[in-house]
Design goal:
The protein is mainly α. It has a domain at 24-51. It is built from one helix and no strands. The mean pLDDT is 87.
Amino acid sequence: MDKDNVISLKQPGQFEDHLTQLLRHGAQALIAQAVEAEFASFLAVQAAPST
């Protein structure tokens, strides 16, 4: 049995090509920006005087 259809799976963090790497880095940057904006909004609400 010389031929089979088993393929190796990619491990997390391994990039197949430059496009995948570019898209992953872009998505990570967008998530970081969203978290920072949400945290800044949270801090602003907490700093506001309560009525």
